[in-house]
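Deliverable D4.2, example record:
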Amino acid sequence: MASIRVDLSAATWRKSSYSNGSGGNCIEVADDLPGLVPVRDSKNPDGPVLVIPAPAWNSFVTAVRTGEATGLRRS
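Output generated by the structure prediction step:
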C-alpha cells in the first residue's frame, strides 16, 4: 500500500467532545483539511497521526452515534 504524506503543520486540532480533564483516553481531530480527517492521541501530539478520508470518518461517527459500531443500537 502506498503512503501519502499530508502537511499537517497548519492543522487546527480539537479534542473530542467526549474527552475530560483527567487525561484519560482522548483523541484530537483536525477539521480544516478538505476531504481528510487527521486523528491523533491527545496525550501524544507529536506521535503518529491517522489520516482518514472524510466520508469514512462520517460513516464511523454515524455508526458510533447510533450504536451500530458497538453492535448496540440506540432506540
